[in-house]
Design brief:
This protein is of the alpha/beta class. It folds into three domains: 4-271, 3-Layer(aba) Sandwich (Rossmann fold), CATH 3.40.50; 321-425, Four Helix Bundle (Hemerythrin (Met), subunit A); 429-484, no CATH class. It has 17 helices and 16 strands. The strands form five sheets. A five-stranded parallel sheet has the order 5-4-3-10-11, sandwiched between helices. A four-stranded antiparallel sheet has the order 6-7-8-9. A hairpin with a 2-residue loop joins strand 12 (274-276) and strand 13 (279-280). Helix 6 (219-230) packs across helix 7 (244-259), helix 10 (321-344) runs antiparallel to helix 14 (398-412) and helix 12 (362-376) runs parallel beside helix 14 (398-412). The radius of gyration is 27 Å and the shape is elongated. The structure holds adenosine monophosphate (AMP) and zinc ion (ZN). The site of adenosine monophosphate (AMP) has 16 residues, from helix 1 and strand 10.
């Protein structure tokens, strides 16, 4: 079955059909690097990661682009408030570039730990000012702009169909429902393309432009960089649900005004929020949870990944430590189950690594198919996880089940092969291959059966054979463990 995604543009589930056969151009809004990512932000990037992995599994060459916002993002998405980067730099006594560099590294440290594949292209706003200026010139040439108070604004009234993504009504926007808006704006929904007579006397980063020395508004960077790397029309754009009414709405207006091509983006994918018991999590409000705070509390970053996949990306997800405990337990049971299968089924055999489905029983194939169809159905990770558990519970053919679990992990990204290897090493001593461990486990099982049948000669013979291979058995109250005596 084909991949179907809920498209915010039109509000319905649609079959994914790329612009170019076999390719998927995908832009996901990246972080504003003025602070650590909070665990809510990381939900957005896990969603992007699942989407990228599913597209890859369906055979698409995914061109995944992500921006790093290191200039121009004010605390209010509607150009109100302070510049997040400048505020953070002042508070920490550092330069804006130092802050950006530090938190960009911290961001990738977090995403790496959560096994989020790095996008093919990561682009910084400050390195694409020329692209932004070029795009703004095109918007201006089309008559969509005006200058006021030293800034260049986008006039949303000139853009037909403004707000379609968010189902906004022009009457409401004109009424100027927002408070505290910039007085230079003709309409409350208009937004800044370029600031010159800065509202921030301390703006650290400024560039020359046709409108004067200044710096870009926030939204223009995503239009400019996505067009630069993916072309004037592309397949998928993603971000958190909060971006629908302002940021993405404005990105569409700018991009389509500049190129005249509609639709700029064919599929809009938005993740719902992660919320705390107390409500919304926000970087600017402070007091938020980071991945490191979960690690410090004794969790593995992949526990958090598992927790996130337990919810559908379009449903709000409530964070709690109890729920994280439960995710950690599930992940541990998963590893235990894999160990049992490895012992019973000949380990992670060559077929598992090679990834060939030939000869896999129909029951295992059915599980795999159900797993993929869950993901094809608007990325249902909760159902996909249920299929993984179903597979492991059935344990139809242990070796095959193990193989299929590792296939599923190509999308889930839980590092199951590594977890299995690590568990076997803890159990069996470091450096053992799963094949060897499984062979030993099988001998241990035969020996236990011989002992149970009071055939002590056979049991001793098995122990003797293992000893010849350098394997020492130790019987304890929890069964037999083994270790290899290195020659
Ligand atoms: P920012 O760094 O603030 O630009 O946000 C990075 C990404 O995280 C954006 O796609 C936001 O929409 C998303 N986001 C922000 N808060 C949350 C949250 N609590 N839950 C899920 N996604 C969020
Ligand atoms: Zn963006």
């Amino acid at each position: 079955m084909a991949l179907r995604l809920f498209n915010t543009l039109g509000r319905r589930v649609e079959e994914f059909k790329p612009l170019r056969e076999g390719e998927a151009g995908f832009y996901g809004c990246g972080p504003t690097v003025y602070n650590y990512a909070h665990i809510g932000n990381l939900r957005a990037y896990v969603t992007h990661d699942i989407l990228t992995r599913v597209l890859r599994e369906r055979g698409y060459r995914v061109n995944h682009v992500m921006n790093i916002t290191d200039v121009g993002h004010l605390s209010g998405d509607d150009d109100s408030g302070e510049d997040k980067m400048i505020k953070s730099a002042a508070e920490r006594g550092k330069s804006v570039l130092e802050i950006a560099d530090f938190y960009t590294r911290a961001f990738f440290n977090d995403t790496d730990r959560m096994n989020i594949i790095r996008p093919a292209t990561v682009c910084k706003a400050t390195e694409h000012i020329a692209d932004m200026i070029d795009l703004i010139k095109r918007i201006e040439a089309g008559g969509y702009t005006y200058t006021a108070g030293g800034n260049l604004y986008f006039d949303i009234g000139r853009f037909e169909g403004y707000g379609g993504l968010a189902l906004l009504r022009m009457e409401d926007l004109k009424a100027g429902a927002r408070t505290g808006v910039d007085e230079n704006k003709r309409g409350a929904g208009d937004f800044v393309l370029w600031f010159t007579r800065s509202k921030f006397a301390n703006q650290a980063l400024v560039w020359d432009s046709p409108w004067g020395r200044g710096y870009p508004g926030w939204h223009i960077e995503c239009s400019a960089m996505s067009i630069r790397y993916l072309g004037e029309q592309f397949d998928i754009h993603a971000g958190g649900i909060d971006h629908v009414p302002v940021h993405h709405t404005n990105e569409i207006a700018q991009s389509e005004a500049a190129t005249g091509k509609r639709p700029w983006v064919r599929y809009w994918v938005h993740n719902e929020f992660l919320v705390l018991d107390k409500g919304k999590m926000s970087k600017s409000a402070g007091g938020f949870l980071t991945l490191q705070s979960l690690v410090d509390a004794g969790y593995d970053p992949l526990d958090y990944r598992y927790f996130l996949m337990g919810g559908h990306y379009r449903s709000q997800l409530q964070f709690s430590w109890e729920a994280l405990d439960s995710a950690r337990n599930s992940r541990r049971s998963l590893t235990d189950r894999l160990c049992t299968l490895a012992a019973a089924g000949g380990g992670v055999n060559a077929a598992a690594i090679a990834g060939s489905a030939n000869g896999v029983s129909s029951a295992v194939q059915a599980r795999l198919a159900a797993f993929h169809s869950a993901l094809d159905d608007d990325l249902s990770t909760p159902r996909a996880l249920a299929e993984l558990w179903g597979l492991l519970r059935d344990a139809i053919a242990p070796g095959e089940a193990l193989w299929a679990a590792l296939q599923m992990d190509r999308v889930l990204g839980l590092k199951l092969a590594e977890a299995l290897q690590a568990a076997l090493e803890t159990k069996n001593g470091p450096g053992e291959s799963p094949e060897f461990a499984a062979e030993v486990e099988e001998c241990i099982a035969r020996r236990a059966a011989a002992k149970a049948a009071k055939d002590f000669a056979a049991a001793d013979a098995i122990r003797g054979k293992l000893k010849e291979k350098g394997v020492i058995l130790e019987d304890g109250k929890n069964g037999t463990v083994w270790r290899r005596v290195k020659a």
